[in-house]
Amino acid sequence: MQDFLIELVKNAGADGWEITDTKKYGWEFYFIRHKLDQNRVKNTEHTSVKLFKKSEDGTCMGSAVSEIAPTASREEAERILEKLLFQASLVKNPVYTLHEKKKVSADTAEFSVSEIAKDFIEAMQDLPETETEDVNSYEIFVDGRETHFLNSNGIDVTAVSPSSMIEVVVNARDRGHEIELYRMYTSGSCDQESLREKIAGTLRYGRDRLVTEKTPALGRMDVVLTTDAALAVYEYFIDRMNCAFRYQGLSDLEIGKPVMKDAAGDALTITARKFLPNSSGNAPFDAEGAPVRDMVIIRDSVAEHYHGSRQFSCYLGLEDSFMPGNFEVKGGEKSSEELLAGDYLEIVEFSDFQVDPMTGSVAGEIRLGYLHEGEKVKIVSGGSVSGNIEETGGIRFSRETVQYDNCVIPAVTRLKLTVTGAE
User: Fold this and answer.
1) Where are the alpha helices (H) located in 152-261, listed in sequence order?
2) In a domain, 2, yes or no
3) First-to-last CA distance in the chain?
4) What's the predicted TM-score (pTM) here?
């Protein structure tokens, strides 16, 4: 960040301001099969400035944000700030305050970008590939991220954390037919065992996609989710506990009241976490400088705390809210083995799967599923699922949990949906 920028921002005539300076340094690797094709080192810096301006009577406040390049001259920065101030004056939101300076614990774990990259490369060298199922290519991106946040109320905090991504393309072949599956996994550092398990599952799904039958019209029945598609189920409740959703009337969840109309399933407990192993969401403060902490947002299916931005927290009269980077869903009463019993359709591949955060409507197109009928298992594809999260006969989920980057959720989720066939 330019030495003169803070001075310019302070003298811009704004009623409040925030500066976020993010430096990233990292390595990138591009593999064809398992042969390194190319790699590079990157080092970037991005500085964003947000200005706030109140109306003349002090009842409204607007904001505007823009990035100012590290190479910008003083004159260029002045022009950008002048434009931002004008744009902010046009916005007429109810007035609110920015976060005040509070003690922030900077207890971030030490890490090495080179060691994280090494972990990814080693994990990719040890996969259960065969002559008919293998890895076509993959790309690894590992960053160290230093975030420096300042605001007009005296907050001045810095945190360093890792952020990683790996993109993998898998091929499966059988009698002249071939299928390609793409996966993207994000994380902080690398969990080798988890990564291997997920890619091994993708190799298996590629093989099974070659021998599917059309999904029959099954009507309303038990559907089981065992992949990251299940995230959408739990994100529905997380979103509805957001301050913005509540204030704007998009959520009817109230503190102290049940979050589900149908209480027949497992009791739902969701906790915002300051830290999760290998998560890219670990940080001592949020994007607005508020200290992050562990906080239960839903306990035993009852709303306990809202979370979200400072603006909408103020509108709800909350003084201690923040924007969490991690979430953990507590496991249910039964084991995965117990939930994977009886008749059900396990869907592991969707072309798309969504739970509308406002209406609870569920929709998904089936790419690969396993229809369990007694002792028979039929591999199916095509058709779709639909329903409403509030009309599932109660959601049941396993004691065992699994982590997808910044979210820990039950490994198995079972709920009733309508299955429309492809036949």
Assistant:
1) 192-209, 231-240, 243-247
2) no
3) 60
4) 0.94
Shared-domain flag, residues 166 and 277: no
Domain count, the chain: 2
The tokens describing 386, both together, are 């639909």
122: Cα separation from own chain's centroid = 26
Q: CB–CB of 385/362 below 8 Å?
A: yes
Task: Say if residues 116 and 278 touch (Cβ distance below 8 Å).
Answer: no
Do you know the residue count of the chain? 423
No. of helices (H) and no. of strands (E), the chain: 8, 21
CATH number at residue 125: 3.30.2290.10
d(CA 147, CA 226): 35
For 14-79, list the strands marked E by DSSP: 16-32, 35-54, 60-67
Q: What is the pLDDT of residue 167?
A: 98
* Type and span of the H or E element at 355: strand 344-355
According to DSSP, the residues that pair with 22 across neighbouring strands are 46, 147
Residues 161 and 260 both lie in one domain: no
Q: With contact defined as beta carbons under 8 Å apart, do 203 and 124 qualify?
A: no
* Long-range Cβ contacts of 78-85 (<8 Å, 24+ apart): 78/8, 80/49, 81/8, 81/9, 81/12, 81/49, 81/51, 82/12, 84/12, 84/49, 84/50, 84/51, 85/12, 85/13, 85/14, 85/51, 85/53
The whole domain housing 162 covers 7-207
pLDDT at 1 over 80: no
Residues 114-160 have pLDDT tens digits of: 999 999 999 999 999 999 999 999 999 999 999 999 999 999 999 99
Please identify, among 207, 235, 269, the residue that sits at the C-terminal boundary of a domain: 207
Cα 400 from Cα 340, distance rounded (Å): 13
CA distance 281 to 275: 8
Query: In terms of DSSP bridges, do strands 401-404 and 396-397 run parallel, antiparallel, or are they unpaired?
Result: unpaired
Select from 163, 181, 207 the last residue of a domain.
207
